[in-house]
Fold these 2 entries.
Entry 1:
Amino acid sequence: MDQKLNIMVVDDEAIVGKRLKPTLERDGYEVETFGDGTSALDRIGQKDFDIIVTDVRMDDVDGMQILEHVKRHSPRTKVIIITGYATVDLAREALVKGAFDFIAKPFKPADLRVIIEKAAVDLTDGQLTTTV
Amino acid sequence: MLRQTRIAVFMEDLNVQPAAARYAAALAQRMNAGLYVLLLIDPVGDRRDTPRRAREQLPDTARLRTEYRLAVKRSLRPLIGKRVPLHVEVLLGDRTSEFLKYMASNPVFHTAVWGGTESALHHGGSRGRRPWAAGIAKELSCPFVVPRATPTSGAGTSS
């Protein structure tokens, strides 16, 4: 069985989702993009995502709230935090709250793809451990 | 138990500045401290890699880290001598992100020393980006020193 992993990308800068979606789809993932935290949370209530890539600073619901919500309701989901306001304190907060990884903007798509690939391997390993 | 004082040396490639290595070693000896070298490497760089290549990199990262760690030790030991305890950490990935994550999960340093060239702190890459190293100082809670080679003493500093 070779089921595609689902990735959600949340960023109020439309260009981020626009650039990442085709790149990640070419890599074999199913990708949904959202421009705000509220609609992302609505969608998370309807569907389980394997990986969520979220910006931190957004108007309504921020990335840390998304991270907390996801970790409460779907601990297996890997959350990757991306931010243009990267600091040591923010990195610490993200990691303490259970983020899989943290990446400062601007980043190269290839750097994010390596992180997503690691998350995918982690998810697959987790599945093998629980089913064996 | 007493915790050892830590002096950090940040590097972005294997070309450590001798003035920086000597300054850090002298300070570590004076403080009875350990040297913690942090080498930040972005193996992906600006290359347009395929997902297959990205996947193939994963099993190699442990080997890559070991090779870099040995290379750093080989290049530093002649400059710092044998007495100073040397710890080398190799971080692979986007340098700014890796630096922030490392600082987020590690104890504070007494002093941080820039081990690369001074120009790397001021000049970005080919696309005119702000160099990642320029943001180091404001994220540190300790003095950040940029040693300079001088004709008379071998190393001066600016911070």
Entry 2:
Amino acid sequence: MRRWLLPTLLLAALIGAWQVAASSGAISGALHLEDFLVPSPSEIAASLWENRSLLADNAWVTLKEVLLGFCCALVAGLAFAIALHLFETLRRAAYPLLVASQTIPIVVIAPILVVWFGYGIGPKLGIVALICFFPITVNVLDGLRSVDPDAIKMMRTLSASRRQTFLRVEAPTALPYAFSGAKIAVAVAVIGAVFGEWAGSSSGLGHLMLQDNAQLETARLFASVVVLAAIAIALFGLLALAERRVVTWR
Amino acid sequence: MRQDTKMPASTGEFATQSALPATDEAPGVAVSIRGLRHSYGELRTIERLDLAIEAHGVLGLVGPSGCGKSTLLELIAGLLEPDGGEIELGGESDAGGRLARCAYMPQRDLLLPWFSAIDNAALALRNGGAGRAEARREAGALFERFGLAGFERSRPAQLSGGMRQRVAFLRTLLSGKSVLALDEPFASLDAITRAEMQGWLAAALGADPRTVVLVTHDVEEALYLSDRVAVLSARPARIVAELLPPAPRAPDRDAAVTDPEFVAVRERAMLALKEGTA
């Protein structure tokens, strides 16, 4: 628990400083803004409580997009990484493209997906999956390629088939890498879902944020951000917990 | 790391009949190497090497570091193909046939950290199609004799160096192959554990005779464990001397290695090594 102490203290200090700066009017004064445009943490907390059912409804929409998109990316990423690992030619052909594809800004793709697939959940899933796919694939592939060549030799002399070597040596070696990839993916998945909703949607926290921005509901805007962060942290924590339960040999 | 448990090496437990599956080895020459040549590109590792090992004989190979000893083992085990010459293991000379007949124990124990000691030991049985329970039963029956009783469920990280090496050796034995290629099996152990493990291996081979090719840079280890020791030159490897140790795998290791005759043979081996390196 000691390792939580310092980050908690720092966070409390930052929130406290923000509270003092915002409620005293120091920030709004310096920026020449109306006071209500710069909500203090206590105002955000109040907004969280007052809008709890609205936030929960929209959070549920966004959470669904994140979870489904993440799961699609997980399945596709694992399958693609294993295929790249097993087929040398495919890896040489596809890997550079995979890396290069990361220079395409996802913000640009989001509106196109909305044009193609409409305002439903489809484009959001697409964005989240696209954003999650890369860290999962690259990490799993790195893991599979980090296998000790001597362990493969050892398995050959113990008459292992290709499948047995994969299941007993390569897959367990890659498992911690897969968890690392998944943890990175789940953190960016939430950002992906918000981008997807900004490009076109009728519900979700991203949608709510756009509305609140237009209506200068800044306290509720921040409340949405808090909920989004909580979702990302909770999912990350769940994966870290699962990793501890599964990867018991580290 | 836990402390080593007492090993059954000197208690004569190995004198009992083996619980291991018998190998199908016919008497006569088990390993025969003729005119072997191998190189990695321009780097010639082995040149015109001839060797023969009787069934259930132990051949020790000593040589300077980087002389191609490990390459020779990989060639014998069927992990590599020679550039010329022939390696025959019980009548099989192609790589697949050699792989089927030879179990290779690498320098590092290479225990899989995600498996318990018993599942590591039973790896070859599982690869051979045995179910988990059956494989564990078969491997578990040998844990006591290998000084590993009570550590069946331990992960490799919880075992001492000597215990890890014994699990690795058990894994090699349980592959049921007639030829064992051991690549510096005790190099990573401290001197006392290494001496204990040598005595232990001697007893283990007494109970379960196998044809063994033992590569080591420890001359004393080779002379104690082997029926015959070949001294290799620096790369490209060729045999510069063959020595017959006075009392292979004698029950009392400490007495055996201080015997004047043993010491004399060791001096000759050291001299041959020095000449081979020059």
